[in-house]
Design goal:
Elements (H helix, E strand, L loop, with lengths): L2 H22 L14 E5 L4 E4 L15 H15 L7 E5 L5 H14 L9 E4 L8 H8 L6 E5 L11 H10 L8 E7 L7 H10 L3 H13 L3 E5 L4 H14 L6 H15 L4 H15 L7
Parallel strand pairs: 1-4, 3-6, 3-7, 4-5, 5-6
Antiparallel strand pairs: 1-2
Helix pairs in contact: 2-3, 6-7, 8-9, 8-10, 9-10
Length: about 290
């Protein structure tokens, strides 16, 4: 083999090594214009926030049967927007009762009603599987002049999942703690974010059962505001149905709506805001009325 061929092979090998190292290197964060939107999704792979041009949400006035939780969360968010002390919030309880809808609606309502000159609050969604990357997200926004509601929908932990420790540290326990410009809202079907059988297993297998359970339960204690959502009554369910129908201008016989809605909930074995909205979509389709998306 000639010296020229050897040099060519060496250059090709070094080029392949350089390409491999480039692929292994962390992805550079892509700068984002935070003024471009009021809502973002955190992408740990990119190390950046991705703007959401149109948030899938309903108006605050359409959320029925959760008045106390609605008012409490809106007030907490308003205080946070004004630079006043505010709590992390855990919205827990029955499925389909408007937990995630309330977070998005409260964010929009506070921004719409903010005083002149007050900057809008940014809503940042982090997916459950990305919770371990929370420290990276905090480092990105800690020094930013905006205020951020970090939102995780359907948050829970199973088995040997230890990513909850990252969340604990970010919320209160880390050496830096939660940044002053951040508040964390989460929704979950579980009050303590852990399944009961997991907690009972901790009690039965640990040397000190009390300490083992305390380690897990202490996560939910990091949320100063707990808002419970429970299954609604028949009257509350019908109030939701008629509220949607009136707001969307669906003209139909009231008794027919009542009978159809109750049958609809019976066939699904559930009375909830989600079930009410699904019936309304069916009704609107039968009436030939398109529903404008917010």
């Amino acid at each position: 083999m000639s010296g020229t061929d050897g040099e060519a092979d060496l250059r090709a090998l070094l080029s392949r090594i350089a390409d491999a190292l480039d692929r292994l290197a962390p992805v550079r964060a892509v700068p984002v214009d935070l003024a471009s939107a009021d809502a973002f999704v955190w992408s740990p792979a990119l190390g950046a926030l991705q703007a959401v041009g149109r948030v899938n949400r309903v108006g605050l006035e359409l959320l029925r049967g959760i008045d106390r939780s609605r008012d409490t969360l809106v007030e907490n968010t308003r205080r946070f927007a004004a630079g006043l002390p505010a709590n992390n919030a855990l919205l827990w309880g029955a499925r389909g009762m408007g937990k995630s809808s309330l977070v998005k609606a409260a964010h929009a309502a506070v921004n719409e009603r903010r005083p002149a000159g007050e900057a809008p609050v940014k809503l940042v969604e982090i997916h459950r599987e990305d919770v371990a990357s929370l420290p990276d997200l905090m480092a990105l926004i800690r020094a930013d002049p905006h205020r951020f509601v970090i939102f995780c929908d359907d948050l829970s932990f199973d088995g040997d999942d230890s990513s909850y420790k990252s969340l604990k540290a970010v919320l209160e326990g880390g050496i830096e703690g939660r940044p002053d410009n951040v508040v964390f809202y989460a929704t979950s079907n579980r009050r303590h974010l852990l399944p009961r059988d997991m907690m009972e297993n901790e009690r039965s297998t640990a040397i000190n059962p009390g300490e083992a359970v305390e380690e897990k339960v202490s996560l939910s204690d990091r949320f100063g505001l707990w808002l419970g959502f429970h299954k609604c009554s028949q009257d509350e369910f019908l109030d939701m149905v008629f509220g949607y129908a009136d707001a969307l201008g669906l003209r139909h016989d009231r008794e027919a709506i009542r009978a159809e809605a109750l049958e609809w909930s019976t066939t699904r074995g559930s009375r909830s805001g989600r079930t009410a909205w699904q019936y309304i979509q069916d009704l609107a389709g039968r009436l030939g009325r398109p529903l404008a998306q917010n």
